[in-house]
Amino acid sequence: MFARLLPRRLPRLSPLSSRPISTTVPKRSDALFIHRDTTYNNPQIAFKFNPQNLKRAEEIISHYPPQYKKAAVIPLLDLGQRQNKGWTSISVMNYVAEILELPPMRVYEVATFYTMFNREPIGTNFVQVCTTTPCMLMGSTDILKTTCAHLGGLKPGETTKDGKFTVIEVECQGACSNAPMMAINDDFYEDLTTETTKAILDAFSRGEKPKPGPQSSRQTSENSAGLTALTSKPYGPGEFCLPEFQ
Q1: What string of pLDDT tens digits covers the 246 residues of the chain?
Q2: Topology of 51-113 in CATH?
Q3: CB within 8 A of 16, min separation 6: which ones?
Q4: CATH code assigned to 125-214
Q5: Has 148 been labeled as part of a binding site?
Q6: Which residues bind [2Fe-2S] cluster (predicted)?
Q7: Does the annotation flag 241 for ligand binding?
């Protein structure tokens, strides 16, 4: 019955009404996910935790039930990366797999997924310039250009010839209210200008460590325009309660 109501032939679409197929060129990642043996990164290069880090690794593993100690893979990889001068080699991964009694592939999967693990050697000072939307709106493009130019004309992903600095471009690092910002090693430097960026890099170049946090006059993440709330004496229960509770 319903078949009788359907047209015997569907109307032919005109060329203008058809939807063309479009493709985009795939963008190559800046990270190599397949390991390639090199003279500085191959399984024959031995790696073991030093006594201090081995004690720390055992303490970390003790936080998990024995059957779930594999959950310590991320903190142990981080510990290995710190001992290995800031990067995670194939030997570090294999050693972590051995300690946690995991197939090495399970550790490789973690190390290649999280961008916190550097698969190649980096400089003494690891500079990560945030260029996501809030930072971009506050001038992070100039901060990245200034950083690269001030370090001898680097491009993101490169290391200075003296091995002191590696610069990369990253997405949000969670300090949006203090944009623009960059992270150097474990510290954040916020409210940057081109002048303060150069001063920070010069200090690290001299072997000094500038004070982290906002490089402006404000404290932490307070409103840069000044106090806009709670500007008068509060009212309510706290004002009229007994003296011992005030």
Answers
A1: 555 655 566 556 555 555 666 665 555 555 567 888 999 999 999 999 999 999 999 999 999 999 999 999 999 999 999 999 999 999 999 999 999 999 999 999 999 999 899 999 999 999 999 999 999 999 999 999 999 999 999 999 999 999 999 999 999 999 999 999 999 999 999 999 999 999 999 999 999 999 999 998 888 888 777 777 777 776 666 666 667 765
A2: Arc Repressor Mutant, subunit A (1.10.10)
A3: none
A4: 3.40.30.10
A5: no
A6: 130, 135, 172, 176
A7: no
Residue whose C-alpha is closest to residue 140's, from 166, 173, 185: 173
CB 135 within 8 A of CB 150: no
Confidence (pTM):
0.77
- Cα(182)–Cα(169) distance, integer angstroms: 9
Question: Is 130 marked as binding a ligand?
Answer: yes
Q: Which two tokens stand for residue 144?
A: 């990245």
